[in-house]
């Protein structure tokens, strides 16, 4: 329930509670800081800002920051047309000012210096970060950073570190994390950025060499690639950084002496090719190991790096190390899970006359493994079983349950020469007693040749989206008969069978709900979309039909697995002649 507005509340409450992901980043900033949304309403605020403004977070969140805080030197509301912060906010640009004023809760006016910059946040678009500092509230407002010679440069440093934390921890993709890291430091701190990463078996790879030309970043592929091994004793700057020893300054003269290692040779080549006259190099470390090194270089940019610049570079590299370590662990987990999933999902049998193809796509945010599955296998009477199902969940437990159900279904279908409905009834009875599966859906079909070039399909449906049948002329309709409740409910009711004849050159699509369900859209909308695109693609070869169907129909906001089994019956000529190969 929302907090009732108090009579002394200023500004209009226009947004909800702060996203939790912002709070840690803002608390890491030693100055006052808050984030506003694209309407200028405060999304999140740190403790230091509460202290400086004399207002608890509840009195700040959701209010228009300009109306609530911005004042002139006499404490009067500042017209928006005269507010330079508001102008920078609307222009989506970084700006700063040495003298301005905020209103405190007690009615007093707080002199401030501020910096404003666009700020990417999880779950919020077009957000903006405001960092501010007051020289008059340093003694009684709690601990704050040591005073800097240039306070605004200190604010910029804190804003950069906060942005680095948010940017790098909001992705689990290594390449994207590296791209964001480079964009954060170039050209803000340097006009060259070099990232060397230590791969498996301690091999070093110069992964990124980027130059800033104005606002354009250019990669130099000719300077990237494999590097010599890290020497154990070398005192040279990059070698020390790759061993995790220390951050160091370097210049062209550093590598003019006879090289003590292959890495020193590559460093001389780098300085000669780029014209870098000053460089700062820091280790990229996780809590477990050294992952590489970050080098910032200045060529066209005037001024040399000094030892005073190293703590900032170390802070950035430390945050990069944690983000890269998390991304690497996640990718390893996805690889292991993908291998497991590939072993769990079967190869399709060769069925004379039928073309058959399958696809499996994991949920985008899952670990390459889930409960969606497909299957096709020969039966003892010469027909072929077809199945597509979905076990609740997107994790290893769901995948294990899927494997149990699939194997039990195969055993029942092979040993019991019964209609699909009876096979599924037996399966439903068994899963409650010998598996950990809570609920699942399933379509089980049996297909075999019929007369006049047709194929006969019989099936039963346990709470699953209906199969789709498309003729060679593009007529598409759903097979809605044979429908019953899903598996695992405990309501062991008799199930129905349905039968249909599949004409020559017709296409049957069995799929899971990840193909058609999307947030904010009805199931009927998804079914209509699938039918429309399947009909339009009916003339395509089966592999192309399947790939295009996935690309066109799977919702962009999909958060579920997709399993897809598609088959096509032969033409009449092929029924009496040779058989096509399986695609």
What does it look like?
The protein has about 575 residues and is of the alpha+beta class. Strands 7, 8, 9, 10, 11, 12 and 13 form a 7-stranded antiparallel sheet that branches. The longest helix is centred in the middle third of the chain and has 35 residues, at about 310-345. The chain is built from 14 helices and 24 strands. α1 (about 20-25) packs antiparallel against α5 and α10 crosses α11. β12 (about 280-285) and β13 (about 290-300) form a beta hairpin. The chain is about 30% helix and about 25% strand. The radius of gyration is 32 Å and the shape is globular.
Helical proportion? 25-40%
Which structural class best describes the helix and strand composition? Answer: alpha+beta
Morphology: globular
Count of strand segments: 24
Characterize the biggest β-sheet.
Answer: 7 strands, antiparallel
Structure summarized in a few sentences:
With 583 residues, the chain is of the alpha+beta class. The protein is built from 14 helices and 24 strands.
List the helices and strands and how they pair.
Blueprint: H1 20-27, E1 32-36, E2 42-45, H2 47-53, H3 65-69, E3 70-71, H4 84-91, E4 95-103, E5 109-118, E6 128-133, H5 151-169, H6 174-185, E7 192-198, E8 204-213, E9 216-219, E10 225-227, H7 237-242, E11 248-250, H8 262-274, E12 278-285, E13 290-298, H9 310-344, E14 355-361, E15 372-378, E16 384-391, H10 396-415, H11 420-434, E17 440-449, E18 455-462, E19 468-470, E20 476-478, E21 483-484, E22 498-502, E23 507-511, H12 523-536, H13 542-553, E24 562-568, H14 572-576
Parallel strand pairs: 18-21
Antiparallel strand pairs: 1-2, 1-6, 3-4, 4-5, 5-6, 7-8, 7-13, 8-9, 8-10, 11-12, 12-13, 14-24, 15-16, 16-17, 17-18, 18-22, 19-20, 19-23, 23-24
Helix pairs in contact: 1-5, 5-6, 5-9, 6-9, 10-11, 12-13
């Amino acid at each position: 329930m929302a907090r009732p507005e108090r009579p002394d509340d200023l500004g209009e409450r226009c947004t909800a509670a702060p996203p939790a992901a912002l709070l840690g980043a803002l608390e890491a900033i030693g100055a006052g800081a808050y984030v506003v949304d694209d309407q200028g309403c405060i999304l999140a605020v740190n403790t230091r800002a509460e202290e400086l403004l004399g207002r608890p977070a509840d009195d700040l969140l959701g209010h228009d920051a300009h109306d609530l805080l911005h004042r002139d030197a006499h404490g009067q509301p500042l017209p928006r047309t005269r507010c330079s912060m508001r102008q920078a906010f609307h222009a989506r640009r970084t700006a700063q000012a040495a003298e301005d004023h905020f209103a405190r809760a007690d009615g007093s006016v707080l002199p401030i210096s501020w910096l404003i910059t666009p700020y990417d946040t999880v779950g919020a678009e077009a957000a903006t970060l405001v960092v501010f500092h007051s020289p008059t509230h340093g003694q009684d407002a709690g601990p704050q950073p040591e005073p800097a010679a240039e306070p605004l440069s200190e604010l910029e440093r804190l804003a950069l570190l906060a942005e680095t934390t948010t940017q790098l921890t909001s992705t689990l993709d290594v390449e994207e994390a590296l791209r964001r890291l480079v964009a954060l430091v170039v050209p803000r701190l340097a006009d060259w950025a070099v990232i060397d990463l230590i791969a498996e078996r301690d091999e070093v790879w110069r992964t990124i060499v980027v130059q800033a030309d104005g606002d354009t970043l250019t990669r130099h592929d000719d300077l990237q690639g494999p590097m010599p091994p890290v020497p154990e004793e070398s005192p040279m700057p990059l070698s020390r950084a790759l061993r995790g020893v220390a951050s160091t300054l370097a210049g062209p003269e550093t590598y003019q002496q006879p090289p003590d290692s292959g890495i020193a040779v590559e460093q001389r080549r780098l300085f000669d090719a780029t014209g870098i006259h000053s460089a700062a190099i820091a280790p990229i470390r996780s809590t477990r190991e050294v992952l590489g090194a970050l080098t910032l270089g200045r060529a066209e940019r005037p001024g040399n790096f000094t030892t005073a610049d190293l703590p900032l570079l170390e802070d950035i590299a430390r945050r990069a190390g944690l983000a890269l370590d998390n991304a690497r662990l996640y990718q390893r987990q996805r690889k292991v899970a993908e291998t497991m999933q590939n072993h769990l999902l079967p190869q399709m049998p060769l069925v004379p006359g039928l073309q058959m193809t399958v696809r499996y796509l994991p949920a985008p945010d899952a670990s390459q493994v889930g409960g969606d599955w497909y299957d096709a296998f020969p039966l003892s009477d010469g027909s072929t079983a077809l199945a597509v199902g979905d076990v609740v969940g997107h994790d290893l437990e769901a995948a294990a349950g899927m494997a149990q159900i699939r194997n039990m279904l195969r055993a029942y279908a092979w040993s019991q020469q019964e209609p699909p409905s009876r096979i599924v009834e037996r399966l439903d009875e068994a899963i409650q007693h010998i598996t950990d599966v809570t609920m699942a859906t399933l379509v089980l079909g049996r297909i075999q040749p019929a007369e006049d070039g047709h194929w006969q399909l019989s099936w039963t449906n346990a709470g699953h989206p209906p199969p789709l049948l498309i003729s060679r002329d593009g007529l598409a309709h759903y097979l809605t008969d044979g429908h019953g409740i899903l598996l695992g409910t405990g309501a062991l009711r008799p199930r129905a069978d349905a039968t249909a004849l599949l004409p020559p050159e017709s296409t049957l699509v069995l799929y899971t709900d990840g193909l058609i369900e999307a947030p904010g859209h009805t199931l009927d909308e998804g079914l209509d979309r699938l039918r429309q695109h399947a009909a339009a693609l009916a003339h395509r070869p089966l592999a192309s039909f399947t790939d295009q169907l996935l690309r066109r129909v799977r919702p962009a906001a999909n958060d579920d697995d997709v399993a897809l089994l598609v088959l096509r019956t032969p033409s009449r000529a092929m029924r009496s002649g040779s058989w096509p190969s399986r695609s």
